[in-house]
Structures are given as C-alpha cells and as structure tokens.
Amino acid sequence: MSQTQDCPHEVCSTLPLLTAQMSTEREYDCIVIGAGVQGSFTAYQLAKNNKKTLLLEQFVLPHTRGSSHGQTRIIRKAYTQDFYTHMMEECYVLWAQLEREAGVKLYRQTGLLVMGPENSNNYQLIRNTLQRNKIPMMTLTHDNFSQHIPQMKLAKGYEAVVDITAGVLYADRALSTIQGQFQRLGGIIKDKEMVTDIKPGPVVTVSTNAGVYRAKSVVITAGPWANKMLAHTGLQLPLEVVKINVCYWKEKVPGTYNVKQRFPCFILTEGEESNEDIYGLPSNEYPGLVKICYHMGSKTNPDQRDMQTDRSDIDILQCFIHRCLPGLIPEPAVVEHCMYTLTPDRHFVLDCHPNYRNIVIGAGFSGHGFKFGPVIGKLLCELSLGQEPSYDLSPFQIRRFQAQTKSVL
Ligand SMILES: Cc1cc2nc3c(=O)[nH]c(=O)nc-3n(C[C@H](O)[C@H](O)[C@H](O)COP(=O)(O)OP(=O)(O)OC[C@H]3O[C@@H](n4cnc5c(N)ncnc54)[C@H](O)[C@@H]3O)c2cc1C
Predict the structure, then answer these.
(1) Is the pLDDT of residue 340 over 80?
(2) pLDDT band at 6 (very low <50, low <70, confident <90, very high)
(3) Which entry of 16, 47, 292, 349 is 20 to 30 Å from 38 by CA?
(4) Where is the FAD dependent oxidoreductase domain (predicted)?
(5) Does 95 sit in the ligand 1 pocket, CB within 6 Å?
(6) Domain check: are 174 and 308 in the same one?
C-alpha cells in the first residue's frame, strides 16, 4: 500500500508532488549573494539572459548598512587609467538604456570639476586621460576660474579641468529601479535571508537562515562582507573595510551651491590638507546642504560600523571648506555613514574563484564602483556563464594579490 494512495491525510497524498516542487523551487541557474548595486545589476543581466536567478540579501530591502545606499553618487569619465574611462563609455549608454526601459530619471548632468596641484601626478594623469580619449572637457585657468565657478576658490599653484558629461546618479532610485527590472524579468529576490554557508561543487549549495538552495553558479557580491562569504570557499582577499563619514555642509545663503546654480560636482586630487581626494556634489537632495566627503575612512567591522567614531576626516574637510568654499558653514550639519571595501591598489576584483570556476567574485570596489554597476553586472554575468568577458579583466584579477591572498582551507 503506498502512502499516496491510502493515507487519509490530504497532506500525505500530495507529499511527493510538493517535494518535487520544492526542490525545483530551490534550484537555480545562478544565485547572486548581496543585493547592493553590483549584485542587483548582475542578477538583472542574468535574468536578461534567461537564467533562473535568485538574489539573496541579508537585510530587509532597502537598507543603509552596506555601500550602495544614499541619494547620490558621482558619474564621470575622468580617471587616471584609460581602462576605467573606456568602461565608462558603455556605462553611460547602459544607464540611459535603463532610464528609458524603466521610465525613470537616474542621471543629471552637472559636469565634474577636477582640481589638483600643477605638479600632481594624479591630476596630470586624469587630464591626460580626458584629452587622449577625446572626452568633452574644458580647462580652467586662474584668470577665468572665478568667472565660471564663483562659489569656490582655486588655490595658487593649482589647475582645473571640467569633465563636461559627468554628473550625479540618483543612487537609491537606481538600486530600486534595477531590482524592480530584475523582478519584472522573472528574477527572485529574497531579502532578510543571510547566507550562512556555501558548499562548492559542480552544483553549488548555498544555505541561508531560511533555506538551502542549489545552483550551477554563484556570484558573490557581498560588499564589505566579501571576505566573510569567501571564508566558506577557503579564500581570503586583501580587503580593508573603512567607515566613511558622509558629511553635508550648510550654505550660508540658501541656493548658492545648488544644482540649479550650475555648481558642479568636484574632486580635489590632493590638497593642502591631505594626499587623498576630497569630493563634493551640488546641493540637491537636501535643500541648502552640500555633500562633501573625504575619500578615505578608518578601519571598521561591517557588523559594528558605528563603533568606529574617528572624525579626523571631518577635521580635514573643515580646513578645506574654510579655505576653498567660503559660502559654506565649516561645521557638518548632517553626517550619514557608509563603507568602502578597499583593495591595496584600489582596483576592483572581478574574477572567478581560483579553485572553483563556477563561483564568481565581484568585490573591492574601493569607493568608486557605483557608476560602473551596469558594466560590472554584465561582466560578472559573462564570467558566471563561462563566456569571454567583454573587457580585458587583467587589472581586476585575483592573481595580482598572489602574495597577499590567503587560502584558509
Ligand atoms: C560615501 C560613499 C560615496 C561613494 N561615492 C561614489 C561615487 O560618487 N561614485 C561611484 O561610482 N561610487 C561611489 N561609491 C562607491 C560605491 O557606492 C560602491 O563601490 C558600491 O556601492 C559597492 O557596491 P556593492 O554591491 O559591492 O556593495 P554593497 O552595496 O555593500 O552590497 C553588498 C550587499 O551584500 C549583502 N550581504 C553581505 N553579506 C551577506 C550575506 N551573508 N547574505 C546575504 N547578503 C549579504 C549586504 O547586506 C549588502 O546589501 C561611494 C561609496 C560610499 C560609501
């Protein structure tokens, strides 16, 4: 007598059917771990390629605990290396495509003012990259600087160029848009599901606090938690997580630095205050407040981010604002928090796991990865499908860290 025929309980008679259904529900072509900007674009690309894709996120979405939250990010082609400028050419096209596809505005052109000492290596590299790649740009001299940007002072011995097509990306809106497009393509997002284990193999098994899933390939885009995830696969990368104080500064006269007054985004490559970049965006998301941050922070544990209370970056910003932005009160009005995951050379990690080709890693976006989301998603999708990547990925390979990469197995 079989259970399905004779058991009086309805639940027993449907058991084999349910079990079969459950197992197909838990089997995917690809599982993406982490629904920040990189995981969300990767999942979207996979779904676009008709792959059954699951995107797992440890927190309830949207959240402010990783690296992709906040209203704004800078988008630019101004880089010290050609390979980033080339990738950005396609990113602009893909961001515009997403805007059209979803019917939302994600980008606003403001231009990006890049300033640096005349003899600064980084400043010269950026200017040369713009020139060499024929990116629309404008050089500002000491004589005409205040005519174009009266709200800011260019220090003596400094030069400036404007990357004209640069601007602002509406980050939170972009994230919810791409996740929505992924779901529209049939993709599944499970938030509040923390991945607790990854078992490599020809089929990878991923366990969460709520279930066990299997997939032909897995993409790890866990941001500041990348090494925590990679530990399950026996790998540790030389990544450092730092907390960033996201500072907003009040205008003395409301509207002076507003996007409508054509105040641009800016980057100071090196200043009197420090060797790291200082960057800013025009006031827009919070009326009367200008976002200006230091491109470095202090080491933190992503699970205890706010236990790091160092404010030395804010001291540096105060000196800079006092010196160069006389229309702002040099005391931050609002401070929010975010994290960078830094690699030693500040280039990304876009590669297959050295021991398991069906585990793909996107990590170490080093505080400049948001604008690349559409192309990163495409590249991680290509790697997970075993396709030839559309760009030369040698600057992003794990083997460059050979001396610093630890196997923990
Ligand atoms: C203040 C600030 C300013 C920035 N400015 C710019 C800019 O102007 N331009 C620019 O291009 N870039 C900028 N960046 C960088 C950019 O935002 C990041 O490079 C990018 O957001 C990194 O995205 P990510 O998907 O790798 O990481 P995250 O956004 O952190 O996503 C990782 C996700 O994985 C999830 N996760 C981790 N572990 C697990 C687990 N066990 N189970 C399930 N889910 C898990 C996390 O919860 C998180 O949601 C800035 C970053 C900061 C912090």
Answers:
(1) yes
(2) very low
(3) 292
(4) 29-383
(5) no
(6) no
Residue 281: CB within 6 Å of ligand 1? no
Residue 407 lies in a domain: no
pLDDT in tens, 310-324: 999 999 999 999 999
Task: Return the best residue to mutate from 370, 371, 376 for the ligand 1 pocket (most ligand atoms within 8 A of CB).
Answer: 370
- How does pLDDT run across 50-88, given as a tens digit for each residue? 999 999 999 999 999 999 999 999 999 999 999 999 999
Instruction: Return the residue matching tokens 């760009």.
Output: 391
Is there an atom of ligand 1 within 6 Å of 58 CB?
yes
223 lines ligand 1 (CB under 6 A): yes
The preferred substitution site among 31, 59, 73, 277 for testing ligand 1, maximizing ligand atoms within 8 Å of CB, is 73
User: Would the pLDDT of 17 be above 70?
Assistant: no
- For the CA of 222, the closest atom of ligand 1 is 34
Do 102 and 118 lie in a common domain?
no
- Phi and psi torsions of 208, nearest 5°: -125, 180
- Which strand (E) or helix (H) includes residue 363? strand 359-363
Question: How many CB atoms neighbour CB 139 within 10 A?
Answer: 12
Alpha-helical segments (H) within 295-372: 312-324
Q: In a mutational test of the pocket of ligand 1, which residue from 56, 65, 365 has the highest number of ligand atoms less than 8 Å from its CB?
A: 365
